């Protein structure tokens, strides 16, 4: 018989305003890790790029980036040591080139379990992330957290449904989505809509953490495979917790088998215009 730990995953999203000083950010993140652990959380998702934030001087991320062996990740490893909770968060990782990677780090009990370097860079709405960040070149990994398969995506990735579908095809039941979703006209609506859409079209739980504060929309949330909200952060610095149930996922995939209904064997070809002028 499957144990309860393999049937229910207690997940949480944490949000806070990221500042320039990495030590301050590590301290706040550490408090959220402690709170999650005390609430029996098994998977905690924190925002993208929590090491440092330069709102008006984004080019400074080139010099501020740290290696994964650097002091920020070391501090985060210390915060997670001797705890059960698996923590997913984003940093800017120094590379062999001038531009760093935008990297997700997965920690468990003080150890780096996996990393994911963001594939889709935010060159949209007037922003050009690729000026200061280089994209990754490998598919996002899937990690195992207490019997649940968890795929990784970062912020702008959520606008690409094929990435969520790829994760689902490779077995993901949950998607962890750290973000720093920039403020702007209708951007909060877009964030909420896209998080729910990816849950629906991949039939997965989505654990979506967005930075709060002056430059980002916040509204971190956890949604079920039908796109319905299970929990959401309501304070600038806060934690929201929900239990993800495998039986619910299985029921949704039985009622809504979109992953099985795709017809990739067909090819759509352009229709020739035979109209005479």
Give a written overview of the molecule.
The protein has a six-stranded mixed β-sheet with strand order 5-4-3-2-1-12. The chain has a six-stranded mixed β-sheet with strand order 6-7-8-9-10-11, with helices on one face. The termini are far apart. The protein contains seven helices and twelve strands. Helix 1 (22-38) runs parallel beside helix 3 and helix 4 packs parallel to helix 5. The chain is 25% helix and 25% strand. It is globular.
Summarize the structure.
This protein has 277 residues and is of the alpha/beta class. The chain has helices spanning 22-38, 61-64, 71-80, 161-169, 187-202, 246-255, 258-261, and strands at 8-15, 43-45, 86-93, 101-108, 111-117, 142-145, 148-152, 174-179, 205-210, 221-223, 229-232, 238-245.
Task: Throw out a few tags for this protein.
single chain; 277 residues; six-stranded mixed β-sheet; 25% strand
Question: Between the first and last Cα atoms, what is the distance in angstroms?
Answer: 71 Å
Number of strands: 12
Main-sheet strand order equals 5-4-3-2-1-12
In percent, how helical is the residue content?
A: 25-40%
So how many helices? 7
Strand content: 25-35%
Secondary-structure element pattern, one letter each: EHEHHEEEEEHEHEEEEHH
What's the rounded overall pLDDT mean? 94
Unreliable sequence segments: none
Main sheet attributes: strand count, strand direction, barrel closure = 6 strands, mixed
Cα-atom radius of gyration:
19 Å
């Amino acid at each position: 018989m499957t144990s309860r730990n393999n049937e229910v995953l207690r997940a949480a999203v944490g949000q806070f305003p990221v500042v320039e000083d990495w030590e301050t950010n590590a301290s706040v993140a550490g408090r959220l890790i402690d709170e999650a652990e005390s609430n029996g959380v098994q998977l905690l998702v924190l925002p993208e790029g929590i090491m440092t934030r330069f709102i008006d001087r984004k080019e400074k991320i080139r010099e501020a980036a740290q290696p994964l062996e650097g002091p920020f990740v070391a501090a985060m490893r210390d915060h997670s040591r001797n705890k059960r909770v698996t923590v997913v968060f984003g940093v800017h990782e120094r590379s062999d080139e001038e531009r760093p990677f935008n990297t997700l780090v997965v920690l468990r009990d003080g150890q780096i379990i996996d990393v994911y370097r963001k594939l889709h860079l935010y060159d949209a709405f007037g922003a050009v992330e690729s000026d200061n960040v280089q994209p990754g070149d490998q598919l996002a990994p899937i990690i195992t957290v207490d019997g649940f398969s968890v795929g990784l995506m970062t912020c702008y990735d959520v606008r690409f449904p094929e990435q969520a579908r790829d994760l689902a095809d490779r077995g993901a039941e949950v998607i962890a989505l750290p973000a720093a979703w920039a403020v702007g006209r209708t951007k909060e609506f877009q964030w909420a809509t896209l998080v729910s859409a990816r849950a629906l079209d991949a039939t997965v739980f989505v654990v979506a953490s967005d930075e709060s504060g002056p430059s980002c929309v916040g509204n971190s949330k956890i949604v079920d495979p039908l796109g319905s909200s299970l929990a959401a952060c309501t304070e600038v610095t806060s934690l929201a917790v929900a239990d993800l149930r495998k039986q619910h996922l299985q029921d949704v995939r039985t009622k809504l088998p979109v992953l099985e209904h795709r017809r990739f064997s067909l090819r759509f070809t352009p229709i020739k215009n035979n109209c005479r002028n």
